[in-house]
Amino acid sequence: MQNRVTKLFNIQYPIIQAGMIWNSGWRLASAASNAGALGLIGAGSMYPDVLREHIQKCKQATDKPFGVNVPMLYPNIQEIMDIIVEEGVQIVFTSAGNPKTWTAWLQEKGITVVHVVSSVKFALKAQEAGVDAVVAEGFEAGGHNGRDETTTLTLIPMVKEQLEIPLIAAGGIATGQAMLAAMVLGADAVQVGSRFVASEESSAHQAFKQVVVDAKEGDTQLTLKELAPVRLVKNKFYNEVQELYKTGPSVEQLKELLGRARAKRGMFEGDLEDGELEIGQIAGLIHDIKPAAQIVQDLMREFEEAKLKVASL
């Protein structure tokens, strides 16, 4: 199927594999791209030299388009952007920052720019900054999230009502049925994160992948809003955060408890007790670990089946 997003990225299906920290290395990105989706390398968990290595390996593993997701809150952002340009990456998804900072600079170098937002306000700011498309991510999503707790079901049509550029829906999408629902609400494509965490090619630790598969409804919670809202699996670390909240902690106390590299410990190294385990609410519908190509095929099969079912109503 072809629409504004598939044409923008030159991909077969309107599916983007999210660029998630500690989960989205070159193996996952290239596998998703080879399957007809758009694979993204998650630069947020990579030092500059590691990112360069992943980009180079991804170019060797696929001749299809792929991109890099760049959270803009890191201090070495200029070095990261320079590497992206030097390595010839054609698509960049930016997040966690002002899109005006890098959009024009990247586009001058022939790069397609997409910005991730969690509200209508920031979607319009991204459009004003000149981005080529917007990802609107609902409160259901894993990892860092919006403060307003707007769900995907309400966010997508509200953004669509005011946006002119292509719109990609994210948050709570792991099935073809959800993909169809998002597109009926006005999205041109979907970005899928949690479902790809539980893929064979994901760089997440096997123990974390199993936590995702075992997760049930209510096993995740949005917390640490004073720092940066993040959706976590309820584990020992999460419980320590909740105990600290009972004391009315300061921002500094929350930062001290969080410390450094908790996400790496949890998702990449498999520390299920003291690590930060980021995953979306949709984990309750993820029951197996499978190849990324199979995930893409399943999404499209379910999407087509759902279309037929809806047509028969």
From TrEMBL:
<keyword id="KW-0285">Flavoprotein</keyword>
<keyword id="KW-0503">Monooxygenase</keyword>
<dbReference type="InterPro" id="IPR013785">
    <property type="entry name" value="Aldolase_TIM"/>
</dbReference>
<dbReference type="Pfam" id="PF03060">
    <property type="entry name" value="NMO"/>
</dbReference>
<dbReference type="InterPro" id="IPR004136">
    <property type="entry name" value="NMO"/>
</dbReference>
<protein>
    <submittedName>
        <fullName>Nitronate monooxygenase</fullName>
    </submittedName>
</protein>
<keyword id="KW-0560">Oxidoreductase</keyword>
<dbReference type="GO" id="GO:0018580">
    <property type="term" value="F:nitronate monooxygenase activity"/>
</dbReference>
<keyword id="KW-0288">FMN</keyword>
